[in-house]
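Notebook, p. 212. Picked up where the previous page left off. The plan for this session was modest: take the two constructs that came back from the sequencing core last week, fold each one, and keep the raw output in the notebook itself so nobody has to go hunting through shared drives later. Recording the first one now, exactly as returned: residue sequence, then the structure token string.
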Amino acid sequence: MKRMFVFLMSLLIYLGGYTASYAQSSSGILVKGVVYDAANRSVSLPGVGVTLKGGSKRTVTNGNGTFQIEVPSASSVLIFSYIGMQNQEVKVTGNQELNVFMSADSKALEEVVVTGYGTQRKSDVTGSVGVVSGKDLLTAPATNALQGLKGKVAGVNVFLNSGSPTGSPKVLIRGLGTINSSSNPLYVVDGVAMEDIQFLNPNDIERMEVLKDASSTAIYGARGANGVVLVSTRRGASTEGVTVGYDGYVSLGVLPKKLDMLNSDEFLQVIQKGFENYSKYNPTGTAPVFSKKDPRLFDANGKPLYDTDWQEESTRTAFSHNHQLSVLGKSEKSSFGAFMNYGRTEGIMLNSWLNRINSKIAYDAKPKKWLSLGFNLLVNSTKGNEIQEDGGGQSPRRSMLEMPPIFPVKFPDGGWSNSSMISDPYSLESIANPVHVLSTQDRLRKRNQLFGNTYLTFHLLPGLDLRTQFGFDKRDNLFQDYNPTDLTNISAPLGYASIENQHSFYWQEETYLNYNKEFGDHRINAVLGLSWQERTAENGFVSAQGFSDDFFRFNGIQSASQPGAPTSSFDRWAMNSYFLRGSYSYKDRYLLTLTGRADGSSRFGKNNKYGMFPSFGLGWVVSKENFLNQVQAIDELKFRASYGVTGNTEIPTYQSLGTISSETTLLNGTRVSTSFVNRLPNPNLEWEKTKQFDAGFDLSLFKSRLKLGMDYYHKLTTDLLLDRPIPSSTGFAVVRDNIGSVSNRGVEILLSGSPIVSQDFRWESTLNFSYNKNRIEALGANNEDIFPGPGFVSGSQTILRVGESLSSFYGYKRLGIWGTDEAAEAALVGAVPGSAKRSTQRGVIGKGLPDWSGSFINNFRYKSLDLNIEMQFVHGVDILQQFFHSTQDRTGYSNGFSSTLYDSWTPQNQSGMIQQIRNGPYSGQSSEVDDHWVANGSYLRASAITLGYNLTQKQLMKYNLKSMRFYVSVQNAFLIKSKSFKGYDPEATSYGDNQWGQNIYFHQYPKPRTFTLGASFQF
């Protein structure tokens, strides 16, 4: 990687010097001009590419549509190109002042889209495909390849669940349709499946296509049920010559808001009131005596010495920067692209960071008329310190809210504080202060990836190509954890270290024929091919505790006195597939697409190794009919419909087999090896199947000034992989089987247009929103409820119940607070006035999947200035605020919300929903999951506001540049949410990839508000 870095830097410096010297030494004719829209001759066109034919010189028109370019002679030819317009070639012929008028391209609708194993004309596509350019993905700086996708494609929910630099987004395409299998879409990067694109450099992405319906995803068969995201990365230059570019930014991230927690005086009032109410909740006990005498924490008058704002102490202003270098070149028969990226992203929580270095080389050539070839190689290395985000425990994201403010970060002697360091009888929960944890705990994550592919394309006949390609994805991860010996209630007094190595290698080989031909009114696009794929994985894990000091940390794990049992594992799966797709168009009006794939997977039972996944799509371009083609306002009107079956093979390996586990146990004081059967075989196990119907239309009006797309879909997933109960006489409780079904019904709408287009000002706007209704249709023979977790107080927090949505919250109803006039009634259920009044039975109290989601994106341009505003919204979703357990319902153990002091039940205030203050360690608690914890999760967010300035053509010529842009932006600019939600951000989870964890969280890593200054240029 270091050698590659040196090579790319040397090449960049050489090419930069060569380009500069060429610009300085060349001489010729300076040609100036203006480019106009032929349909409205008073409107000039900014951003038009102006290229010297046969040469490397290139420029673009500025905000006024003007340009100037130096050409070698009066016979030179300039090529003008602009998206949606016909290319024009104009001879200079001694004319140094040109007015160029560009006409709309009637073939603009023939834009090609990647649809898997080839491309199709956009007008011929019968499926539902969303397209996002790399430029649109980077309207605001992004460290994650999926950040920029959020809100850009209707029907695609991207949950940015954390503000951590190492946090991973969760993507759902057209709802959640599985229970035990993965819900992640299939990611295909440059034709190669990539299991995780979280750390893919977003600056390398040229465009993304999102395949949503069965007509477009069936070509991926058993891996297409959750949708497919096709990623095309940047390659070589499109015009001859060499272009060198740089993109970079620096940013500052801050905590947008603080939660309203108790300060020291308020916290002590809560402790005192809890002591005063002791006898009410424990009438037979001896009431504790409240005091403020500990000299380390209180002065002689009992006044607290410290009032620590733990949110302030645990967070910081995070400084991040990112730098991307690119060298693009093209000659007559080949092109290349070399890219390198370095970035450091700091999190707003202390000691949270991610470093990434990324290098990529792409090469394409056509050495013979009958042969094309190329390769793509990517090296990606990341290293970061990760803050624990799952579960509860003593993670700093929790303790920075619950650590009592009466303690300092450090005492005057330099020692770290913790909540056990008090002599007054408060009986606080033992908590290591969050600054101590963040400063001394290691959770290092090192990831190295080598990814690439190579291809050969044989041009057998006109329109007939044979392509064979080989791709691979090699990953090596090293996770190193160390918890010091002085972290109370985490690792004290022994300390804890662990090292985990993860190695995986995935390869695929695919060979297929592509046929593209027109016969008069007929056009055929066909693909026929076969594929082999395999993935192997090896893991090793060692841990230990019992360190005498913290010197070696995980680097001397052998020095620990209590080593844990080491573990290792090996995993392998393979697939063999055959696929085809045929698209037929008649007179550009009537469209038919047939797709099929046969997949064989090692993950399923011996009786169901292969499955067939067919689909078909129909389209009618009504605007081509005689009764509409004379309507000038309509550019395109296309109706389309599709139906097909896809599968989900993403389950752990060996689930269909009877497997044996091995471990050790102590027998007569000696550790011996043991083995036992841990799973019954099921030779009939097969993949989940998703049948999907889609109907929609695409409408373009007024020379593409207004566009509308709408889809209705119905997805039914059957043969869900669930654990079926079996007789206990077998020695097992369950066996994995295909039972149950889930449906998703929805509507997607995408409306875009250019309300204002004038000489100096342009406004482009896009509104997209989608509605999805998720429903469990069946759960085995008896449709019995299933409680999949995650577990917390009251047991499982979610329920699977026929007729309800997946990710339904499960808990009690809070009917109020028992009043003084209800003392007798409360006593019947073991309660007293002031405690929560709840329903006797649990039920569905909310859901974590939204009904509505979407975005409203506006782009404005005035001369050389541009402004981008992205708004995103979610409606019809709930949040299960598990943190109410410890910050409101369980007073006395730790710090909590200020509302516990000011809004809690008292004999004088019996109308609220917050229980009376009691001291949990002495008086117990009444904390159960109920609907008081559930908040409205709807929100409106200004996700990004970006203001940019592009250098004028005159300025570019002065500095010998092709383009240059400066910009400033703010991300997460503001957030409008419901008053019932009391956390940092309504979009989060404490349960990682758990299917049921969305919008369920105990505490969260807050999302920052980020201010960015950036620049990009090409020469």
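Okay, moving on. Second construct, recorded in the same format:
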Amino acid sequence: MSQKQNQSDDRNEADRSRPHRVLPVPDLSLVVLVGATGSGKSTFAARHFKPTEVISSDFCRGLVSDDENDQGASGDAFDVLHFIAGKRLAAGRLTVVDATNVQSESRAQLIRLAREHDVLPVAIVLDVPEQVCAERNAGRADRAGLPRRVIQRHQRELRRSLRHLEREGFRKVHILRGQEEVESAEVVTERRFNDLRHLTGPFDIVGDIHGCRSELETLLGRLGYALVRDELGRAVDAAHPEGRTAVFVGDLVDRGPDSPGVLRLVMGMVGAGHALCVPGNHENKLGRYLKGRKVQHTHGLAETTEQLDREDDAFRAEVGDFIQGLVSHYVLDGGGLVVCHAGLPEKYHGRTSGRVRSFALYGDTTGETDEFGLPVRYPWAEDYRGRAAVVYGHTPTPRANWLNNTICLDTGCVFGGTMTALRWPERELVDVPAERVWYEPTKPLATEAPGGADGRPLDLNDVVGKRIVETRHMGRLAVKEENSAAALEVMSRFAIDPRLLPYLPPTMAPCATSKEEAGGEAAEGGYLEHPREAFAAYRADGVREVVCEEKHMGSRAVVLVCRDEAAAAESFGVPKGVTGALCTRTGRPFFDDAETTERVLRRIRDCADRAGLWTELETDWLLLDAELMPWSLKATGLLRKQYAAVGAASGAVFPGALAALESAAARGVDVSTLLGRQRDRAADAAAFTDAYRRYCWRVGADAAGGGDGTGAADGADALDGVRLAPFQILAVQGRSLAGLAHTEQLALIDRLIAAEGEIAAADGVADRRGLLAPTRRLVVDTEDEASVAAGIAWWLDLTADGGEGMVVKPVQALVRQKDGRLVQPGIKCRGREYLRIIYGPEYTRPENLRRLRVRHLGHKRSLALREYALGLEALDRLADGEPLWRVHEAVFAVLALESEPVDPRL
């Protein structure tokens, strides 16, 4: 064996003989390295931590002065160090401070920093002999001249510190004495006690119990748990056959008839691994009593101590140990669920400090007391904007309600209310009634829990400034600050109640510009838009089957219709008398009076009921995408100022001009060219007027015969002449239907419309025109030329009869290209005469058409896709039961993008 191999074996043997120290460090903590200069702190940090986790005072000194040994820059250097460390801790990152830290003053600043961010401070001391430190400094060119007295001073300060580190506030102190311990030490990061993100459930989270053992047993039975009893018949465990885990939010004891029985059952479940439990303020007080501390026997503690006195010492000791071991809160299910007793703001999730524990046990108060002498709770849940759902108890409320992704499960069982559990991730509530009033409440139960139903749901900070919205279908989408400001103006001044505005429709891109020339009677000019381009675009995207839907000339409408007032109040928190909403694509109400809106909703509700959609779709509400007609119903101002003005001007000018030219021609003046051009212009103006008039008609009293302005005709209906053409059910309770094939969507809509006819026939008014209008459609195979030709012919017939055009959509929704990008959800192809309204009376003239065909669609297409993705995100968040601010974040972003500059004619 070679000498080199012998030396290697000797080193390995020496390594094995060294004292091995394992240093546990919480995965979120502030680690403070303590040691004299030259003790090897930087080497130790580099060996055991990531480079990004370590903040060195020398490095910070170099940042501010270009010289790591410039002691004059130490003040600024430590300012930088503390700033960086604070940012890392705020972001939830393990942070290591590499400095001498031998003075108590410098350590005190770091302990304060850890407390500010609610993390544990950990000290690792490198106690290395003075000679070793001196030799190491001498070996470094930048410290070769360091006076020996500096090392000696550091060593003295270190000696004075060793006995006081825990008293200073360090939760863990690891002292490594000598080089061998330093070199053989192993740092092991350990999971915080409250970090159970690896447990994904499913869970059954049980609200406050307060000694109501019988109701708890009944509730566990309802949840599917099988109780296990001891030889005395007492429940000592409960297991779910499907492996579900119960989670108790605390307040197991006090006020109720059998606190020991509740403790026995819950402790058995926790011990068997069938349950988790966090402490409530009542357990905290009981734990202090069992330790012999002086506490007031109020709020039900007297009853609990009396009940425990009937138990043996072993049981009481077991209870004390159980309470002592409870963790303030748990972070579960990948960080998506937080369970605690009194609620917890996001900044405290997964943190560890006395402040966090206090909030989790007691919540926060405003410092005021109510008329019953009880503290007024600070409504933290109203401002909550975290991604994790927070489930808690503590403050009794008549029923459990979600607010901002938080829910209070204390429904006052001990006061005669109910005991409530939440199934997670199903978000399903299960409750059982109290067997009796076990304890008279100090004040009546009311929805005053933090985040109660009357809490403030939205906040300005949710929408102002530049926003980045995460979407499932298109990743991160940015909203510019100036666009947010424009949307805020519209939303705050004109929009309907945000609780009734869970969706806004996206803009729609037109088909590619056509080069098709017109034939037949439309011999002059050609087409700006033609179905051939729409079919070709989808064929290029790999979409074979598309559905061509008639494009109604009206105004885009979003309709939210609830089954009744109770369903509206339950699902959307709206006041009595409101059963839904009917709004424009910018969130404004269509009708000025609520009664007209309710009449529309009532008609749709009756149709849905007759069609059996409430039962079939298992929902209490429907969200519809539709078109409300006539166009003049909402666009009167636009018609008068823009379109009618052009028609009136041409009607006033052209007859006189043509008469003068014809008179001149009769006198032998050669004005044939000018006369022909003016006649063409007059014909174009007349065609323009005819085009927009097709989409305007009288409604209400005028439509029913009172159009002379003298008043409504007998039996006039405010909805006479109004037509609503729904073409998609966007969402129902607990489900987004945006992914349903368009043919299936239209089949559901057809049933709604047919139901209206059946209702009219039953009422004896079958000949009366209904509110709901059908949407004609045709399915086209983009790879079959005969099918494409049929689609083009269908469009030509549709537009020849005065129709606006059609929208071409993939039959299957949510289609993606091969590279994963979303395909346009719809492409509009507008008729030749309708485009005359948009581009002007003379747009079909060859010289104008050549200019108009140079149009840029890229921005419009991008805008359509982004708004589509945001709309889908809003529907998904609504279906998932996310808080209103999360749904409205996406809805608001759609409106904000609408203010992006883009050609309004596209």
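Notes on construct two before I forget. Residues 203-433 form a domain with the Purple Acid Phosphatase; chain A, domain 2 fold (CATH 3.60.21.10).
Flagging for discussion at group meeting.
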